[in-house]
UniProtKB/TrEMBL annotation:
<dbReference type="InterPro" id="IPR042112">
    <property type="entry name" value="P_AcTrfase_dom2"/>
</dbReference>
<feature type="region of interest" description="Disordered">
    <location>
        <begin position="1"/>
        <end position="22"/>
    </location>
</feature>
<keyword id="KW-0479">Metal-binding</keyword>
<feature type="domain" description="Malic enzyme NAD-binding">
    <location>
        <begin position="161"/>
        <end position="401"/>
    </location>
</feature>
<dbReference type="InterPro" id="IPR037062">
    <property type="entry name" value="Malic_N_dom_sf"/>
</dbReference>
<dbReference type="GO" id="GO:0006108">
    <property type="term" value="P:malate metabolic process"/>
</dbReference>
<dbReference type="Pfam" id="PF01515">
    <property type="entry name" value="PTA_PTB"/>
</dbReference>
<dbReference type="InterPro" id="IPR002505">
    <property type="entry name" value="PTA_PTB"/>
</dbReference>
<dbReference type="GO" id="GO:0016746">
    <property type="term" value="F:acyltransferase activity"/>
</dbReference>
<dbReference type="GO" id="GO:0004470">
    <property type="term" value="F:malic enzyme activity"/>
</dbReference>
<dbReference type="GO" id="GO:0016616">
    <property type="term" value="F:oxidoreductase activity, acting on the CH-OH group of donors, NAD or NADP as acceptor"/>
</dbReference>
<comment type="similarity">
    <text>In the N-terminal section; belongs to the malic enzymes family.</text>
</comment>
<dbReference type="GO" id="GO:0051287">
    <property type="term" value="F:NAD binding"/>
</dbReference>
<dbReference type="InterPro" id="IPR042113">
    <property type="entry name" value="P_AcTrfase_dom1"/>
</dbReference>
<dbReference type="Pfam" id="PF03949">
    <property type="entry name" value="Malic_M"/>
</dbReference>
<feature type="domain" description="Malic enzyme N-terminal">
    <location>
        <begin position="16"/>
        <end position="149"/>
    </location>
</feature>
<keyword id="KW-0511">Multifunctional enzyme</keyword>
């Protein structure tokens, strides 16, 4: 099937459409219902009656946006009317929810009169925290937005005007930087003079461009002062009428620095691009067909054409989803009365700054694994980059507070943590650990230091103040790779082939001489194997922790630290633990990587160490030792091991958290089963530490929970070692390395 047929099937599959209403509070009991509705609902109603602002406390108003349209200017479809525009407005709601966790009611109004539209929206003001106007034709859209901004006390934003302006504005900031041109010197030509073009031209002036340097063309040619005097253009176009000779788009583009296309496809030729100034900036944003194709524009010049379009299949997509969800997120969270020019500029600057940062692996993978690095082909962030929320929303909130548009002040540092939590429990949990790490950074040795991911991770670890990273490997290669990646940092490197590390070889020989390792072999191992080098480095106290495993199988990466560092004095067994973060709970799963067939002593040790790990994440452990039996319902060697381990732990005075077992997995995690059928259990609440009876079941269990349960997995985290060591999985991403570095630092802080 083609795209159209696929889309029809997508939309009509039961339930039809793309959105639904869901509850955020429990509605399982009669009491729940009496709280949600009559008679209990009267209490919040009375509170709001006393003070209107209490609506933000007792209702969803503060996270609810109205997407309002009359369907008079739907992108690519024109005036199709209110009813036919509904799929577009539902889609807008999907984007609000997906990217910024904002709820939406889509409102399609069958009304062409702009003044009646205004009155209709005004009557809905008590419902919403903000209003997103969508697909209303020009010039009526200007009237609607201007009046609503004046007459209601919540943010109003016409995305067709300002979205493109802000995102292309961010692109312009970076394009000018790369082309080494000053904004105030840019000669800018617009093709198109509708709502989006006029708003974009206005916004470029807010960024620092000169209005006198902007030439705007409509279907009749250059908008000149003479045409304005004749009354050939409306009042909104007149503000960009220029005292120049009349002409067409080709005349306007000659000698220009920037072309901004917001018109129709195929109207710009290669000759027109060739007539522009050196290193031209071409934003051909007509959809679905740009004013000039990407390849054609690039091929038109020998110098560096910086090209952007509205298409996702070429670099530098100007996509409004980079703006409106995050703009409203920040505005809602400070209860802003408007979205003003200062907030729009803050958004563009935040996006431009983000494009200059190292790009997460997940974003690179989403776009085909090709390198993504600041330059002509990457001047604005990708829409799927999760960091956009953390950069743009706080910038909007700060600008609102600074400009007086905010009703409430917020702590911006704490606000970023709240935003992290909106994207998932794993981010919230990792923020706890990373904040602890930043409070007292430690030195972390990164074996496999020549690996590009390790170098990028070292940059992020150092930049964020999580740890003091030391890359182990060839120093010249590491520095060259860092330079090639455009990373602005001076990495600390330990090069085994250059430095004086004879003492490391002596120590390794001392530790392994009775295991058949000669002094010569120890020297070779130190020089050639960064895992042995890093292990001795930590064992000798020259680093506080170590990470390895990116390019080795787990057992081979684990072997050197076990041989050199070993387990803690009071621990006989190390174990691998995953933290699985679901929407509303966190579970630690052990052992998933180390002990194949543990006996009861090993199970008890693994449980003890995993409980300690949970507390590093500020989670009070409740441990369940799992089996296919519940508390003796089956009695054989396999079920007795977790049962005996549970008893050992219950009798251990050092264990100050609840432990029970053996029990089935659903007994451990379902409150009704635990409290109802097995009310005698030591666990009064569902377990958050699950200890599996062997490596096979542990590995299978965590992967099923992760894949089918939709959990985010952090780990594996190695527990029980004498000094902090963590072994990555082959293929882990940079963010995984950064996260485990944070865990390693917190481990070291507690040494």
């Amino acid at each position: 099937m083609g795209l159209d047929e696929d889309s029809l099937e997508y939309h009509r599959t039961d339930p039809p459409g793309k959105i639904e209403i869901s509850t955020t509070k429990s509605t399982n009991t009669q009491r729940d219902l009496s709280l949600a509705y009559s008679p209990g609902v009267a209490a919040p109603c009375l509170e709001i009656d006393e003070a209107d602002d209490e609506a933000y406390t007792y209702t969803a108003k503060g996270n609810l946006v109205g997407v309002v349209s009359n369907g008079s200017a739907v992108l690519g479809l024109g005036d199709i009317g209110a009813q036919a525009s509904k799929p577009v407005m539902e889609g807008k709601g999907v984007l609000f929810k997906r990217f910024a966790d904002i709820d939406v009611f889509d409102i399609e109004l069958d009304e062409a009169d702009p003044h009646k539209l205004v009155e209709a929206v005004k009557m809905m003001e008590p419902t919403f925290g903000g209003v997103n106007l969508e697909d209303i034709k020009a010039p009526e859209c200007f009237t609607v937005e201007e009046r609503l901004r004046e007459e209601i006390d919540i943010p109003v934003f016409h995305d067709d005007q300002h979205g493109t302006a802000i995102i292309s504005g961010a692109a312009l900031l970076n394009a000018a930087d790369i082309a080494e041109k000053d904004l105030e010197d840019l000669e800018i030509v617009f093709s198109g003079a509708g709502a989006s073009a006029i708003a974009t031209a206005r916004f470029y002036v807010s960024l620092g461009c000169e209005k006198e340097n902007i030439t705007m063309c409509d279907s009749s040619g250059i908008i000149t002062a003479e045409r304005a005097q004749r009354g050939d253009v409306n009042e909104y176009k007149q503000q960009f009428a220029r005292d120049v000779p009349e002409g067409d788009l080709a005349d306007a583009m000659e000698g220009a620095d920037v072309f901004v296309g917001l018109s129709i496809g195929g109207i710009v030729s290669q000759e027109m691009v060739q007539s522009m100034n050196a290193n031209p900036i071409v934003f051909a944003m007509a959809n679905p067909d740009p004013e000039i194709g990407y390849e054609e524009a690039k091929a038109a010049r020998d110098d560096d054409v910086i090209m952007a379009t509205g298409r996702s299949d070429y670099p530098n997509q100007v996509n409004n989803v980079l703006g409106f969800p995050f703009i409203f997120r920040g505005a809602l969270d400070v209860r802003a009365t408007e979205i003003n020019e200062e907030m729009k500029v803050a958004c563009a600057q935040a996006l431009a700054d983000l494009a200059r940062q190292d790009v997460p692996d997940a974003v690179v993978k989403a776009y085909g694994d090709d390198p993504i690095q600041y330059g002509p082909d990457y001047i604005i962030p990708k829409p799927v980059d999760p960091r956009v929320l953390f950069r743009v929303a706080p910038s909007i909130a700060e600008a609102a507070m600074d400009s007086g548009a905010a009703r409430t002040e917020i702590d911006l540092e704490a606000y970023e943590e709240e935003l992290e939590a909106r994207l998932g429990k794993s981010r919230e949990m990792m923020r706890v650990v990373l904040n602890k790490a930043k409070s007292e950074p430690k030195t972390v040795a990164l074996a496999e230091g020549e690996n590009e991911k390790m170098i990028r991770a070292a940059y992020q670890i150092q930049e964020q103040g999580i740890a003091l990273p030391v890359l182990i490997g060839d120093e010249s290669e590491i520095r060259q790779t860092a330079a090639n990646l455009g990373l602005d940092f001076d990495p600390q490197v330990a090069d085994p082939a250059v430095g004086d590390y004879e003492g490391y070889a002596d120590r390794l020989h001392e530790l392994r001489a009775r295991k058949g390792v000669t002094r010569t072999e120890a020297g070779d191992m130190i020089e050639r194997d960064s895992n042995y080098f890093g292990s001795v480095m930590v064992e000798q106290g020259d680093a506080d922790a170590m990470l390895t495993g990116l390019s080795h199988h787990y057992p081979s990466a684990l072997r050197p630290p076990l041989q050199v560092i070993g387990t803690a004095d009071d621990v006989d067994y190390a174990a691998g633990v995953y933290m699985l973060a679901f929407k509303n709970r966190v579970i630690f799963v052990a052992d998933a990587t180390v002990n194949q067939a543990p006996d009861e002593e090993v199970l008890a040790e693994v449980t003890k160490q995993t409980g300690k790990l949970a507390r590093r994440f500020n989670i009070e452990p409740r441990a369940a030792l799992l089996s296919y039996s519940n508390f003796g319902s089956v009695n054989n060697e396999g079920t007795r091991k977790p049962r005996n381990a549970a008893r050992m732990l219950q009798d251990d005075p050092e264990i100050d958290f609840p432990v029970d077992g053996e029990m089935q997995a659903d007994t451990a995690v379902v409150e009704d089963i635990l409290e109802g059928t097995y009310g005698f259990s030591e666990l009064e609440q569902p377990a958050n530490v699950l200890v599996f009876p062997n490596l096979e079941s542990g590995n299978i269990g965590y992967k099923l929970l992760q894949r089918l349960g939709g959990a985010d997995a952090i780990g594996p985290m190695l527990v029980g070692m004498d000094k902090p060591v963590h072994v990555l999985q082959r293929g882990d991403e940079v963010k995984d390395i950064v996260n485990l570095a944070g865990v390693a630092v917190v481990d070291a802080q507690q040494e």
